[in-house]
Hints:
CATH class of the largest domain in chain B: Alpha Beta
CATH superfamily of the largest domain in chain B: Beta-grasp domain
Largest interface: A-B, 63 and 61 residues
Radius of gyration of chain A: 27 Å
Oligomer: heterodimer
Number of domains of chain A: 3
Largest sheet of chain B: 5 strands, mixed
Low-confidence stretches of chain B: none
Shape of chain B: globular
Amino acid sequence: MIDALFDAVTNRRNPAAHRPLIQIEPARVRGEERLLARQLSRRQFVVYSVAATTLTVAAPLGCDGSTAEGAEEPADGSRSSTSDVLVTGTDAEMLVLEVTTANRVVVRLPRVEVGQGVTTAVAMMIAEELDARLADVDIPLADARKEGNQFTGGSNSVSSLYGPARQLAATARAKLVTAAARQWHVPARTLRTRGTRVFAPDGRSATFGSLTRSAARITRPAVSTQPKPASKHQVIGRPTTRIDARDIITGKAKYTGDLTVAGAKPTVVARPPTLGGKVVSVDSRAARAMPGVHAVVQIDGGVAVIAETFHHAFQARDALRIEWAPGPLANVSDAQIRSRLRAAVPKLQSPPRGSAQTEAEFEFAFVSHAPMEVLTAVADVRTQRAEIWFSSQTPQSAREEIASATGLPVSKVRVHVLRGGGSFGRRLNYDAAIEAAQISKKARLPVKLMWSRADDIRHGRMRPASHHRIRASHAQGRVVAFAHATASVSESFDKQGLSAQGGVRSAVRAPAAAPLPSDSGLYNFGRLSGDSGSVDLAIPLGAWRSVDSGTVRTAEEIVVDEVARSLGKDPVAFRRTTLRSKAVKAVLDKVAAAGKWGRSMPPGHAQGVAVHEEYDSCVACLVEIDAVDPKNPRVTKVVMAADVGTAVNPRGLEAQLMGTAVDGISTILRAGLHIDRGAVRESSFADFHYARQRHAPQHFEAHIMPSRRDPGGAGELGVPAAAGAVANAYARATGTKPRRFPLDF
Amino acid sequence: MPSYSFTLNGKRVTVEAPADMPLLWVLRDLLNVTGPKYGCGVGACRACTSHLDGDEIQPCVVPVADCAGRKVTTIEGLADGDELHPVQQAWLDCDVAQCGFCQPGQIMATAALLKKTPRPTDADIDRIENVCRCGTYSRIREAIKKAAAGS
């Protein structure tokens, strides 16, 4: 039996309990979660102790602030009577830390690891406050829960976990120390902790594992349960290798497709030639007769084949004779989408009287997320229950929708969250999991569904295409008004039924009204105005790393350069005099100095710069480009500087910046998707030209600004600055004004 | 069904498989050797990169019949027991990986490169085609140089 005691760890509660922010659009997620994370991190956190035989403590997380469902607040701020708050076990809305008798520290994380390094960052927070060896900390990913914040997105994981995780570990440490003091009959304050052990002044020591049973009974720790001040940090802030690095380089790291659970059989789906096309008729006789084929079932998105191996499944898929009805976009191609977008851009406000104008229009193509690991889901759906394994940023919503798709109560659906081979926003949606559940139910077999790479690129999801119209009005050498109107494709399946994609209500929808561009007030540009329109198309879209900022802010940074040019000013100097924030100026200064801004370059080469501020963080990027052959430019050098508050793992942060630099290079220069008569033209990395080694900079450096502020967000931060800097460098190297991205398309 | 024998990571294995079955699915679905990853199935992304008689191959486009009697090495067979291969060690030292999905292939591609070209130039490194969607290329380049310098 598990029950919980309320420990007198804190006396504050957030009176406004927010519900999980799962089913809302990215802009709100970003804004509200950021705000909440900030509120949360500046106050103390409740920590519950779970009555178990080993030391187990739990902290509520994220949006739901400080209360666990059913928990009773003690009137005197001390321990309460026993409550049933944790009777739901793994469904509790908590970050739970357990010290095992084997001296392992286990924290089941309600987030997903997709390469962004969140498991390493959390392990570092725990190791810091517990004084545990990093190698003794395990961060398994939690199954989907009923309550609480289990959302991975909006670059909020570190900021939302920073307070609770440290408080949790600090509380556990205090109990371990207290348990040792009682065992040794010495004052607790004389004890020290290091390397997952407690040490007495006389040299005695005990592992946390040997103390965990007695620590589980400690309700009033005899030493402080407060996290360390930043000045005492020894783990947080130290460049640290990923905790899973060795598993990765030896091939041991397991992704969904590597699982052998439930006897699940390899499964692929024949999909329509056009987006949203429908099966009219299927002749599956030849496919069913092929060796190794277990079943063929029709689903909304196409026809699924379940076979002994993926080879057999692909071969049988190709032997299906299917007549397809064209999808709703069968007469729609890029040119039409572009002109509809252009027409949907709202009018800009009139410029101030007497001002001169710098105007520009930009177009961004659709972009595939294309994580290296294609969408994969294992599903075992029975009449009474379902069990699903996949990598998900939104496992709670996925669980609800899998329940709805299979006709089971949510409590009978178990969702196991697996590490993902990249995401970039793609795993916010759970198309493949729903599809796998439908196939498993229909075929009455456990299935391991894998989308082929062609499925992934041709059937989405993708970053919406967009059109931007920007006007900077200047007078007497300064900008007096800045207007930006956009239109982007928004996903509309009202008549078609998104079930074709297996995601009835996508977890993160394209916002009905996008956030207004230009509202960040990054620059002192006088009167700011923005507006947005949209073109509804039945096209599978998804939030792509940095969401709207990846296009909106990129376009604005290009215009900032063009304004500087028309005012006869240097792009760095112009930004320095017009940026509002000291922090942004500081990162700009950093890249300008480290990247030797203004150094002489041979003809056809140039530098470019851009900045961005979001997620309580800011970044600057300086690139050098070789565009001697304007058709085949190469970014040769990238220098970035970021201020993200406390950088928990500077090496992880550097990795995230490096990734966003390559995203910027890719989306500006080469990587995009064409729509030809309702179908995506590209189908693999052979034609979706995401950067390879020969397109990546030979030199990359990242500078991390020192800070004791609580952490801001970092995972998506660099995209707009990198993309803007690449475009600006290309413009300066070639003397052109880049307008349509990617440039080589 | 025909049967094929080959040496996999130092051990002799025999599988019954159609002649045209790609080695990738033989490894993953018949032998449960999952280090080589599926990323495209057409040899374009190279996430599955492994070695056949020491040379780089993409198992997703190599039929099992072509491997009969030969030596197949996957990421699982690169280290010498607990002793990491120098390329793996360099990858660890440089903390190259992010999501990690492409890294077995990146490491195998590098190991094959260094065998033929122990001191690769930047231009040699640029010829590596393996896609890393996380964009770890700069650390890959650094790790390749480190592994080359150490060998």
